Amino acid sequence: xxxxxxxxxxxxxxxxxxxxxxxxxxxxxxxxxxxxxxxxxxxxxxxxxxxxxxxxxxxxxxxxxxxxxxxxxxxxxxxxxxxxxxxxxxxxxxxx
Length: 96
What we know:
Helix content: 10-25%
Shape: elongated
């Protein structure tokens, strides 16, 4: 099971990072906080002080086309917001 799917890079998360040293990731829906913490520490080599998780249920979407109404659903996912120890950072933009 791949625990970390991808980091979330939005304006809201950028503000959390600047002010509170927090980062957000999309994670596997079966992962718990202990597994998420271990995966972050192993992948990025940082010390995690807290992990908060939340589940997002996909919304029903409808749009009108020439062929009639088309319905679908956006994806359901789990988000983890992690807090790092003071002075530590994760650099997503470095070109290594």
